[in-house]
Specification:
Blueprint (H helix, E strand, L loop, with lengths): L5 E10 L4 E3 H4 L7 H8 L3 E3 L7 H16 L8 E5 L10 H8 L5 E5 L5 H14 L5 E9 L9 H4 L4 E11 L7 E8 L7 E2 L2 E10 L2 E8 L3 E2 L1 H23 L8 E4 L4 H11 L6 E2 L2 H4 L6 H12 L7 E8 L3 E8 L2
Parallel strand pairs: 4-5, 4-6, 13-14, 13-15
Antiparallel strand pairs: 1-7, 2-3, 6-7, 8-16, 9-12, 10-11, 15-16
Length: about 325
């Protein structure tokens, strides 16, 4: 049987817009307050892209930070996976990220799995490395869901912020431990209606008397928050346990759990279900809000910058979101 190449995570980076929208700012135009938002979500503020800023700009900045930490030149990257649901170009924004990084040798393409995007992209990247196809893969998650919400709907708009996070994965040929110890990915399309950003054809072009052509436009995001919460509270602990089983580890052997930063209540519910102490559950939702696919690498980068998470740490990363999609990966930092 062919020996599969091992994987190591060598660089982490993040980027947030400079514009900050606080709960007090929201209260100026919504029937809400800081106390109302924080008690229900754990969020105090979020970062919002300005009109002249682009998701691609954030992705490039986060990618550069991850490469700098790993001391790897852009020309050494073989593949770039951009996990995003809000690309600047619907044909794909990854090629523009490749150009912005100067990674002229890298193949680049988008991967769309909503808030699960980072975990799905991480696992996808590992397969290219394990088979020996590529040596270095840059995984970037970047989203601007603030551009998809109805800013008059306080049940949704208060949740989301914009940002990007990135990790560099490299092939490891030595006898060192593998960096991706186990994973489990899931999808349930029968629940897709719970969280959607749908295409519609409100505008119609009539070039002739007997023909009409619809023009593609997007609705604002819709979400059944109560049902999503109920689903995640049971499904995510299960997928974490499955990933741990595949890794041969128990939860006691994990240093920290980094969930997609959707809502502090969800983080607490999963912790309770897994019987894990709050100190081992990473949370940066208060300052960033829900940054979709980018939330896990943003939280990881912040923890590493503070020195709380260091090289050699064993982590569980779990994402969940539209699709519905969800998944977990057990990672040991290189």
């Amino acid at each position: 049987m062919t020996q599969l190449t091992k994987v190591k995570l060598t660089g982490v980076g993040a980027a947030l817009p400079t514009q900050v929208l606080s709960n007090e700012d929201l209260a100026k135009f919504l029937d809400t307050s800081d106390a109302w938002i924080y008690s229900r979500t754990g969020i105090r503020q979020r970062h919002i892209l300005e009109a002249n800023q682009r998701v691609t700009d954030l992705a490039v900045k986060a990618g550069k930070a991850a490469l700098a930490q790993a001391d790897v030149a852009p020309e050494q990257v073989d593949l770039i996976l951009l996990a995003t649901s809000t690309p600047d170009d619907l044909f794909g924004s990854a090629p523009e990220v490749q150009a912005g990084l100067g990674a002229h040798r890298a193949v680049a393409f988008d991967l769309s799995a909503a808030c699960s995007g980072f975990v799905f992209a991480l696992v996808t990247a590992a397969q290219y490395l394990r088979t020996g196809t590529y040596r270095r893969v840059l995984v970037i998650a970047a989203d601007a869901l603030s551009r998809t919400v109805d800013w008059s709907d306080r049940s949704i708009c208060v949740l989301f912020g914009d940002g990007a996070g990135a990790v560099l994965l490299e092939a490891e040929d030595t006898d060192k431990e593998d960096g991706l110890l186990g994973f489990e990915l899931r999808t349930d399309g029968t629940r897709a209606s719970l969280l959607r950003l749908e295409v519609d054809s409100f505008q119609v072009i009539s070039p002739t008397e007997d023909m009409t052509f619809p023009r593609q436009v997007y609705r604002t995001m819709t979400m059944n928050g109560r049902e999503v919460y109920r689903f995640v509270a049971s499904a995510v602990p299960e997928v974490i346990e499955k990933a741990l089983f595949r890794s041969g580890l128990s939860l006691d052997q994990v240093d920290y759990v980094i969930l997609h930063q959707a809502n502090q209540r969800i983080i607490e519910a999963v912790a309770q279900r897994l019987n894990i102490s709050p100190e081992r559950m990473v949370s940066h939702i208060a300052t960033c809000g829900n940054t979709s696919a980018a939330s896990i690498p943003i939280a990881l980068a912040a923890e590493m910058e503070m020195g709380r998470i260091q090289s050699g740490a064993t982590l569980v990363m779990a994402g969940f979101g539209a699709g519905l999609s969800w998944g977990a990966a057990v990672v040991r930092l290189g």
